[in-house]
Amino acid sequence: xxxxxxxxxxxxxxxxxxxxxxxxxxxxxxxxxxxxxxxxxxxxxxxxxxxxxxx
Length: 55
Description:
By secondary structure, this protein is α+β, with helices and mostly antiparallel strands. The chain has helices spanning 35-46, 50-54; strands spanning 4-9, 13-19, 25-32.
């Protein structure tokens, strides 16, 4: 499955949305700026990848 990531970038946080090929929203979260936010973004995307769904 293809996952599209939209990121509304502000100074202190990011509003992130994941969508599939059909334009359906898979997830939406407000993430903090910095390494913690990047780690949460990677985890959020990983939840919707084929590798994660197959395990």
